[in-house]
Amino acid sequence: MISVAIVGGTGYTGVELIRLLSSHPKVSVDLLTSRSHAGTRADQIFPSLRGISDIVFSDLGDDTLNALQKCDVVFFATPHGVAMQQAEALTQAGVKVIDLAADFRLQSLVEFEQWYQQQHACPELLKSAVYGIPEVSRDKLRNANLVGNPGCYPTTAILGLKPIIEAQNAKNTRLIDERIIVDAKSGVSGAGRQAKLALNYAETSDNFEAYGVTGHRHLPEIEQGINILLESQFTQRVRFLPHLVPMIRGMYSSIHLELTDAGKAVDWQQAFEDSYADEVFLDVLPTGIYPDTRSVRASNRLRIAVYQNNDRAELTVLVVQDNLVKGAAGQAVQNMNVMLGFDETLGLNFAPIVP
Amino acid sequence: MISVAIVGGTGYTGVELIRLLSSHPKVSVDLLTSRSHAGTRADQIFPSLRGISDIVFSDLGDDTLNALQKCDVVFFATPHGVAMQQAEALTQAGVKVIDLAADFRLQSLVEFEQWYQQQHACPELLKSAVYGIPEVSRDKLRNANLVGNPGCYPTTAILGLKPIIEAQNAKNTRLIDERIIVDAKSGVSGAGRQAKLALNYAETSDNFEAYGVTGHRHLPEIEQGINILLESQFTQRVRFLPHLVPMIRGMYSSIHLELTDAGKAVDWQQAFEDSYADEVFLDVLPTGIYPDTRSVRASNRLRIAVYQNNDRAELTVLVVQDNLVKGAAGQAVQNMNVMLGFDETLGLNFAPIVP
Amino acid sequence: MISVAIVGGTGYTGVELIRLLSSHPKVSVDLLTSRSHAGTRADQIFPSLRGISDIVFSDLGDDTLNALQKCDVVFFATPHGVAMQQAEALTQAGVKVIDLAADFRLQSLVEFEQWYQQQHACPELLKSAVYGIPEVSRDKLRNANLVGNPGCYPTTAILGLKPIIEAQNAKNTRLIDERIIVDAKSGVSGAGRQAKLALNYAETSDNFEAYGVTGHRHLPEIEQGINILLESQFTQRVRFLPHLVPMIRGMYSSIHLELTDAGKAVDWQQAFEDSYADEVFLDVLPTGIYPDTRSVRASNRLRIAVYQNNDRAELTVLVVQDNLVKGAAGQAVQNMNVMLGFDETLGLNFAPIVP
Amino acid sequence: MISVAIVGGTGYTGVELIRLLSSHPKVSVDLLTSRSHAGTRADQIFPSLRGISDIVFSDLGDDTLNALQKCDVVFFATPHGVAMQQAEALTQAGVKVIDLAADFRLQSLVEFEQWYQQQHACPELLKSAVYGIPEVSRDKLRNANLVGNPGCYPTTAILGLKPIIEAQNAKNTRLIDERIIVDAKSGVSGAGRQAKLALNYAETSDNFEAYGVTGHRHLPEIEQGINILLESQFTQRVRFLPHLVPMIRGMYSSIHLELTDAGKAVDWQQAFEDSYADEVFLDVLPTGIYPDTRSVRASNRLRIAVYQNNDRAELTVLVVQDNLVKGAAGQAVQNMNVMLGFDETLGLNFAPIVP
């Protein structure tokens, strides 16, 4: 069995990791650290885990690094700024590190420091870290020791745009206008497990609102993701507007694009189906089936629908995922599977929960 | 115009008071105090008030008492323990005081100190304070200077039991068994406007649970309310179990009673209808219409249905109200109307919001 | 008192009309017709109305038209295709008609028949009917006998775009790109009061999805609304994508626009504030306050925020309203007030319900 | 592989069976019948199944019975009255039959016909059918050919009462009063996958109500379940009151009991823990952890908490389960595992979904 540690398992991505890894046939969660809850069983904080896992939060103090170095894989389900403190020591000890926060998502130090308002502890690792969307960077991930697990919104935007950008690359002709609008919507769990008035049920339920209107940290990440895909001279710019939906899990991105004349000629349904034909977790819906977030609830699948309104030259790409699974913990496990040479679907190939 | 002050208007009962009083034809909210938000317009915290009220939170420091004494009526929409500090000075100055917290609900000092874990600042006022359910204590309220506005749960329990207790008094025969079970359910706004993990949407939504299982502060209040009504030798005891419902507003109390042979002979539908025939805000539903909380949403009405399963000698009383209106701010305004000799429905006779 | 009739009051706009008109000081609802519920009290179907209104649904058969002709104002809260059958006879009898369905929204017969798939019974009235957004067409409404009450989505889109279109007219220079994206979101009550699997709580809750992706009837209405405002040579085209939010009431439109160089120079916050300075029901939020749908819940207000991301030349207009009030019944009452020469806010100037 | 058929898979219990069986290591769903959806892939109706199952609904007409007889196990996820038509022919052919509807729940023909208002097609099978709660009737299930899968409410009530009834049996002394009150609450999925106005999101959300107040079909089933356990002279009677909670899944039963003096002396926490010590799916929560429905969401676990308020002689038993899993499809699979001699947890030992 592969020995796994989770640093900081008291948030939603943490408990989701515990849930997913508890049924993974090839790994064992041997260490779960938390300073604030040391000595407490995880199932005391999350009674849903009773009968599933008897792991106890531990705080090893100065010995933590030693203990982590004995594991094969370490997941950081911590706030931004924690993984960067230990990533170097761990990777040098041969441990594979997957950070679910933002420490290793942005390759540009300038952008990281601007958007996250903190200094980076190991900027020299930024370039070698792999931005972990397996369907984009599978080959790099096979040899990766350090993975920045993507933000939830960027995962939907990048996978929703990839077949288009690649088609544009292939034709070396502009198929879509420069301007990309990502009007995205997320369930409340995306804001994390925290005591915050704005997240109180009586404030959030029966309500809808945008947030981050003047700028959101996932914007540079989406732009970077697009730039990774771009191989042509055609740049793109993104307007990203996230909204909060009164639901627990689920993310829905409505991507609005304008087609050029060359773009209008493409059969986009076919292009998407071809692009993702071999991807188990990416599902291009056939014409006539609208995506909804519940169709991926609690699963690692991401579903996409494409609509081409020819008269108006509008291409609409609709993308759904579970923000805590494909948008966080599930993708982290998928990354781990790739890094370890496992079948990529191991521990992840379960059905969504409907209703 | 009657001059009104609200002390502590940043909670849900506070904003509901502002909403209700903003359309009351005979009062003017002249003072709104808050230490934490002094200088801030109320509509900055509650944008729903934009265009409705331009009042500003103020903190007058040592002059607060002076300012309050110039008002005709002062509402305390504060945590427990605040109203008791100023009630004496205000009532002595001729100001009518209505406390929406628990300082003047329990007439027994012992019970207050046991359940609220604090000393009472003016125990001598406890006996003269009126427990403010107009449909129970209208006459006393007319001359009251100090009113303890009831808790939300007790309002439903007491009004749901009153016709039964009174029938038992009138016949001087036991009609129901000693044991009363109040299985009650509340929307999340009942927990107040606070940053608390347990109230986070992702924790509360799509979930149901009991709380206060080993004891809840509203139990002694319900028992006191019943004792006020009791005029016979027949005592009652109450098992009170509250639950949290994933909805914003609304309270539903299911009261389970066992009838004696004498009780079985009563036509309880008729008894309830007769008992509340003259009450504008109390609605005894005809047979065949089940109560639901939305039928009173955002209104001051309380609806009751009675079911007599004869074979099983079971009487079920179902009571619904909006916990923030008839269960809090609406009842406070109703109390004010009675205290000031106004038409009791002034500012309160609006329709519930459905859907 | 003005005598009012409501044709078809068993839907959500119908019950909302009853609620609103029950507290209107100058009108009396004297007739409420329904074929399916004739003889039934409205408060039997909507127990929320108990104590508010004792009106009874009636079906007068052949005498219906006679009875309606004796009223001053007739509201049609019916499906599409009903109002057109009686509009002519009623207006000729001097009755003012307000249709909450789509019979008199589109001035183009071709568009009506294309989008609603039915023949129009009185196409000659289409041109004289006034499209009823008071803040756009107040003067026409004063003399109107027949009003097409707007769809909910178009109300948000048109009022969210009006200051921009008018600024463009005034400068006779293109300020925004031709392409307008209206990414809109609605609560479930917008789908009407109907038994439909797709609207079942277990299907709709904890879920988010787009619908009408390939075309929605509100698109031609939005385009017509924009064209009414256009006085320059600059045409616009609209991509409209509606989504369903798991909430009861509320509508949120995110309007994405690209600014020209001339457009970048405008202070849009100021432009919007100036444009709506005299409008009681239109609230331009100050910088820093995000709109949310609950801030207008159950009220006739519509709030707007404008964001100008200069670097990216993006103008984002966010608009919220209650789809059943400003988006339907409230606007209908507002239209009636204008048509009758009343104070426009009569019966409508109440506070939103928060929480 | 064991060959399994599901008759009628278009409801919520049907899709849940497909979900659960899709990951069961020892069975294969070979036949899925539906008259209304014959020829349609299941994942077209339930897109959540895309990538999970490619099974197609079939209608074999007269050959249906033949085809079912070739399977090892047949689940009926149909309305009441269907399984009884085929149970005899199937069991005689050696097929194991599990009915998720009510045809084989009640052993009394009189009660069945009274509560379900239809004649029974094979009353002679009622006595041999096993009422399938494994934790109650495991031994009988091992040899059963025909299982009536319990209703959701009865499962919580019977398992919540079993340790008490058995303790009373063992002591041959009355420990609880005769009267048992089951105040139960269910999520909306319990009402089934149907187009019904009362289940419309706008009717159900932000609302709470009781239903079946004058009688519910699960009452005789609860009483029968208690009678099966009773081995003493002490009879019990039940007041059962179900309520509808605005949540998709989840069931919460609050059981109110009054203790006799002998009952007060029992350590009920210990009694429950002892009683269920060997049950994987039954979890007696330690003191201090309240049950909530999300702690079992989408899982086959049922959690119980016991509270003994000594002064008041009140015993409160709180029981939670997922109504579609332990309350329906999960228990059916558990029953199948027992009937086939499999490890009882096969395919069912997964973690609940939190948040």
TrEMBL record, chains A, B, C, D:
Gene3D superfamilies: Dihydrodipicolinate Reductase, domain 2 (3.30.360.10), NAD(P)-binding Rossmann-like Domain (3.40.50.720). It is found in: Cytoplasm. Keywords: Amino-acid biosynthesis, Arginine biosynthesis, Cytoplasm, NADP, Oxidoreductase. Residues 3-144 form the Semialdehyde dehydrogenase NAD-binding domain. PROSITE patterns: ARGC (PS01224). It is an enzyme of class 1 (oxidoreductase). Its EC number is 1.2.1.38. Belongs to the NAGSA dehydrogenase family. Type 1 subfamily. Catalyzes the NADPH-dependent reduction of N-acetyl-5-glutamyl phosphate to yield N-acetyl-L-glutamate 5-semialdehyde. This is N-acetyl-gamma-glutamyl-phosphate reductase. It comes from Psychrobacter aestuarii. The lineage of its organism: Bacteria, Pseudomonadati, Pseudomonadota, Gammaproteobacteria, Moraxellales. The gene is argC.
